[in-house]
Amino acid sequence: MSFGFLGIQFGFALQGSTMSRIFETLGAEKDNIPLLWIAAPLAGLIVQPIIGYLSDNTWHKNLGRRRPFFLLGAILSSIALLLMPYSSAVWMAAGLLLVLDASINISMEPFRALVADKLPDSQRSYGFVIQTLIIGIGTWIASNLPKFMNNVLDISNEAAPGVVPESVKVAFIVGAVVFIGSILVTIFTTKEYTPEEMKKFDPDSEEEKDEGMLKTILGTYALMPKIMKKLGVVQFFSWFAFFAMWTLANPALTSHIYNAPKPQIEEFAQLDAEGNIQYDADRVILFQDDQTRLEYSERDKSYNEASDDVGSKMGIYGLSSMAFALLLTFYTSRFAINRKIVHMGSLILGGIGFLLMFFIPGEPDMLYICFGLIGFAWGSILSMPYAMLSSSVESSKMGLMMGVFNMFIVVPQIIAALGGVVFLQKLIGEESIHAMSVAGIFLLLAAFSNLLITDRKAIKYDPA
């Protein structure tokens, strides 16, 4: 039932490891990159509650309740993935990011609800951990695709100024194929319970009159349970940290760890009296001379190689989250766990991983340790909060509740995108690596926010 998450994570991992690189390639200033990402959390804020409500109230005789949304999201996401690396301007890439993230959310939100639909409370930690295991596999493979295309298939990772390298384009094509293919596996191999069967499984749930989508969603926001609010604090700090990583890890690490920042074409090209770049008749950039052309080419090559390596090493957090999920899978299939303690410890390890990055300039291999630690936090973020929440929510509202819960994911990302992460980074120092320091501090705050959670049923499933 969770295999489709492999494709969803291909989309998210390519977006997370490569999108800032695309923005930089198209000429975006480093400090403006988080703002260019704002389309992604905005799409989630709008789409997820709507899809949650619609999937709770949908029943298709062939596709069931959640699977129609899997299919729609997969088709739209695959189209966006195919088009993204062919963007010719920053505004075009930002627009496609909005389409891509909204489409991924259409598929992703019902997957969370599907696990809760099909599993009793005693197996939900296990179910969400299995989902995390598949996400980890997808993260690692997709993050390594551009480097694999260049090193193994010999597809060039160099391109003219303002053009996305061919290796990145091919990686996105592979991502589109995997996305729709894995979603189709889930659609064709998973049975969903009818509304009547769901009622039998949860006879204590109250039958409520449908008051319409907008009123229902707003009412759910107003009357959200206490456990959701407390988990929301944890989620706020967690997702602020990871948004900082997705948007600024590439510029931060290529410059601080590899000493290979993206070269600014204005320093090498011929400029007119107003400082505009000059082009020849074929719209090819005119360099100052052959020496500056060669210097730009060498520095851009170093940047692209560093970006490939950053993306590859970011994939390690997918591997370690997979290992974390695998261990929890074996354990939670037999025993109860203290979800709060597991989540707190994992977030502390992730915070240490981010903070360590400042102390390792010139040592890219140390990033294996950093992202390995971050993966423990990521694996827990993708499983423990949902397991804790699902233990306190009626099955008839599971899709809507999961969608509303998404508010605590997207709001911190919107705040970070509107300048929050850059502002906090500059309070520490001008160096871009301090964006990762901010991420580490916020993960530690997320860890200790778990102390707010006191609900016994959410913390630990008790078979008795």
UniProtKB/TrEMBL annotation:
Lineage: Bacteria, Pseudomonadati, Bacteroidota, Flavobacteriia, Flavobacteriales
The keyword Transit peptide is annotated on this UniProt entry: no
InterPro entries xref list: MFS, MFS_dom, MFS_trans_sf
UniProt domain Major facilitator superfamily (MFS) profile: residue ranges: 1-194
Subcellular localization(s) per the UniProt record: Membrane
Organism of derivation: Christiangramia forsetii
UniProt-recorded name of the protein: MFS transporter
Domain of life the protein comes from: Bacteria
Membrane protein topology class: Multi-pass membrane protein
Pfam family name, one: MFS_1
Record keywords, A-Z: Membrane, Transmembrane, Transmembrane helix, Transport
Sequence intervals crossing the membrane: 35-55, 67-83, 89-106, 126-143, 170-190, 231-249, 314-332, 341-360, 366-388, 400-423, 435-453
Principal location: membrane
Keyword Lyase among record annotations: no
